[in-house]
Amino acid sequence: MSEVRTLVIDGKDVAATSDQTVLSAAEENGIHIPTLCHLEGLSDVGACRLCVVEVEGSPKLLAACATRVEEGMKVTTSSERLVAYRRNIVELFFVERNHICAVCVANNHCQLQDQARDLQLTHFELPPLHPELTVDATHERFVLDQNRCILCTRCVRVCDEIEGAHTWDIQGRGANARLVCDLGTPWGSSTTCTSCGKCVQVCPTGALFEKGRTVAEAKSRRPYLPYLVKAKRQGS
Amino acid sequence: MATSTFVGRSAPSDDKRWRQVDVRMRRLGYRPDGLIEVLHTTQEVFGYLDDDALSYVGESLGVPPSKVYGVATFYSHFTLKPQGLHTCVVCTGTACYINGASALLAAISKELGVQPGATTPDGRVSVLKARCLGACSMAPAVVIDGEVHGHAVPARLVDVLEKL
Amino acid sequence: MSTDGPDGSAPVRHGRQPEPLIPDGPARASANVCQAAGCLSMGSDQLFETLRAAVLARGLHDVAVRRVGCLGLCAAGPLVEVPEQGRLFERVHPGEPKRTEDLVSSLAGETVAGRSVAADPFFSHQVKVVLERCGTVDPERLEDYVATGGYEGLSKALTSMTPEEVIAEVVRSGLRGRGGAGYPTGLMWRTVAKAEAPEGKYVVCNADEGDPGAFMDRSVLESCPQQVLEGMAIAGYAVGAHRGYVYVRAEYPLAVKRLSSAIRQAERDGHLGPEIAGTRFNFQVEVRIGAGAFVCGEETALIASIQGGRGTPKPRPPYPASSGLWGCPTLINNVETFANIPSVISRGGDWLNTIGTERSKGTKVFALTGAVTNTGLIEVPMGLTLRQIVFEIGGGLAEGRKFKAVQTGGPSGGCIPESLLDMAVDYETLAAAGSIMGSGGMIVMDDRTCMVDVAKFFMDFCREESCGKCLPCRVGTEEMYRLLDRVTTGMATRSHLAQLEDLAAMVRATSLCGLGQGAPNPVFSTLRYFRGEYLAHIDDHVCQAGVCPVPAGPPAGATEAALAGTATVSSGGRP
């Protein structure tokens, strides 16, 4: 089973078990690494790249959420270079789609916005791409606004791994990748959706939200997920 | 349809071609990981993948619809729309590109009035771009209805298209 | 019946084809008709039938007419080789009776000039290990393969060597992965062999050759699929796997057909399947067909695709060697790597080790294309110089144009300028020059090619082929493409160029997989050797190659600083 590993994170000696990721070992020891696609209780995909860290001996940066701890590892979670890359990453998220905070339901409750604030990002230099995307309001309680989606796939994973419905997936690829319901079906006509609302709760931005909320009103209840995961594990 | 081999779901219509899809799925033991193989067969048989086909294959293999759709739209070989009577594929691999594939595309678009990826409104010709057909030694290459035209030049190509 | 994909892959003929003519005794002369994709598209299947009929009609009982795989000089197809006379007949178009008649006369013993193979630098510089049987055996006849020593390596491994001895032989050979990265093959085999696998292991052959301008793996599979299968079976024995997959691009229907036929024949004759060579070793191979996604050449994406899903990569570690197909230890090598293996075992690792350079052993197959006279498929010892490849084997530039660059490594590779032509080609020198070996595409560019446009071409490729999973690649390639587009349309300033360089560095460092990490390489390498061309577009609105639609006249937003830059460049100062 899991064994104890000792490693160094940002100069601090740390003990962790062999099944832990660098991210979780760091968090346990009060070392904060920014994340977006990671959510406790869901599998990790290493897609947003915000949590990339330097590991001594590795020529490449590694995603802390998807890298297991190893004996003797020396990890740097924050350096001038890493901070610069993280700022670039957040900037790319903002220019990819329409993320105008002032007119977003998730204003002040948005994890992308939080990242920009933490990294003191005030303006963007790259030209915005901002394709005009659809808003699906066909579901009786929820709305999907593709313009705010950052393709973190938390909703896809929570729907598959916790709810077991697999209503969501990603269609297309590259810049044409979009969150998709069933066979490109309007959400309201989905044959698989249980209307459980978990996807809405885990969305880090204002892409999935409850109807009837106006600007800055949509506040997700993310911390509930670990309890669900625990309950599910105990039940099975 | 009574003759369907799968108990969970019967084929979307009594079109006999579904039997080929059923045979493929049976050979693969209805395993979810056979999805791409089955989509290949379905497209070979019907020419494209419509919603009926996608949901039938998904239900038969036990793959959720959004996952089937995600796979079908990820791979450029799969098409969700019917293709034209003829296909004209311009290779845009590196060797073709530096040997003038752009000029060929421009000439075709002008001649047929459609952009790559589209079919003429009368359904006659679909114009497609390919990433690299491996016919680099004959660059630039164009494939019309399966026939490779190497060292293609715009004027000759337009001639061929007119005679289709 | 013909199958041809919507992507326009060439049709494949099914059904019975006329049998080759093979005399009872030794053949006095043989017409080996190339049946690889290039020649086929020029009518070589019809040529085979015409020749066969002509030889029969003239009653030449001691003349063979055979189908063979790629003869290499694709530029001059359809090709027919008469090995007994050491002659290659070029452009034998079935529609030109004179060419066929000349050839038949030559077969009948009359003196007719073909291209002499021995004296020709296109052939004399080549060393054939992987392509040893390409162009000599019939790709669809297992007996041809066996008659030329095929399956001796597998038989030797199974009957006289332990798995560890097989691995040691591969280590000794110095063979490195031919798919691009160049990881030592033997070490990878050992890792997989040592991995614990309660649920079995797998061997996967990566034949998802996606680099535009590369067709080596296609030619090998179309010319001698048995050699690849033998390599896979030896690998299965060495690492302890009993199942193998070959993942082939959907764009290669002929390769799929010949490979499938090769598997059936090998199973029939006991070279694959249960109890191979009378031992207790069993090994099965299945073909999986890709569906048009470049990223599936990346090993974790390839695994996702074999499992029927979207071909999106996963972070490594864990590497497939410990957790691959269905979570089992999986050995993934590419076509060319596996094709090296039978020789390594039958002739010994030391033999391969004598070919090549200090750190890169053996040979490399290249698809030589672009603005060069002899386009085609070549195999050269590691360490030959680019100049020898382009000017001696390739016969120099077509139409007497001026050399500008040679591109290697596809969309993750780079452009190498004239000043580096005397570089000996191996993994290390190419990397030092800012390119990579890659899978073996080699595209020669002349002075009509604009290097900014080339960088834009590859970026366009990467943005369309990005899987969209990780942000730096999904958005970064799109942004880089737009910046490059600004340069080629005269809308860029020097600050856009700086933006491009920053973004390129970030995408390289932070992307999840090799596609994103390598996507900035064409930008870096063209900036390194051809920065002047970028600046000419930006400052002077000049595209020296005359490719880009830069508007005439001084830049619209020209500032004094930019104009000062113009002066520097046009006065021939620093680059």
Task: Summarize the helix and strand pattern of chain B as letters.
Answer: HHHHEHHEEEH
CATH class placement of the largest domain in chain A: Alpha Beta
Indicate the CATH topology of the largest domain in chain B: Arc Repressor Mutant, subunit A
Strand content of chain A: 15-25%
Short description:
Chain B is α+β, with helices and mostly antiparallel strands. Chain B has helices at 18-27, 35-46, 51-61, 65-74, 94-98, 101-112, 154-162, and strands at 86-91, 125-130, 142-144, 147-149.
Description:
The complex is a heterotrimer of chains A (236), B (164) and C (575). The longest helix of chain A has 17 residues. In chain A, a hairpin with a 6-residue loop joins strand 8 and strand 9. Chain A has two domains: 75 residues, Ubiquitin-like (UB roll) (Roll), CATH 3.10.20; 143 residues, Alpha-Beta Plaits, CATH 3.30.70. With 236 residues, chain A is an alpha+beta fold. Chain A has a five-stranded mixed sheet with strand order 2-1-5-3-4, covered by helices on one side. Chain A has a three-stranded antiparallel sheet with strand order 6-7-10. Chain A has a two-stranded antiparallel sheet with strand order 8-9. The mean pLDDT of chain A is 92. The relative contact order of chain A is 0.14. With 164 residues, chain B is α+β, with helices and mostly antiparallel strands. A four-stranded mixed sheet of chain B has the order 2-1-3-4, with helices on one face. Chain B is elongated. The N terminus of chain B is likely disordered. Chain C is built from 22 helices and 16 strands. Chain C has four domains: 102 residues, Glutaredoxin (3-Layer(aba) Sandwich); 212 residues, Rossmann fold (3-Layer(aba) Sandwich), CATH 3.40.50.11540; 84 residues, Ubiquitin-like (UB roll); 120 residues, NADH-ubiquinone oxidoreductase 51kDa subunit, iron-sulphur binding domain (de novo design (two linked rop proteins)). At the A-C interface, strand 4 and helix 2 of A face helix 17, helix 18 and helix 19 of C.
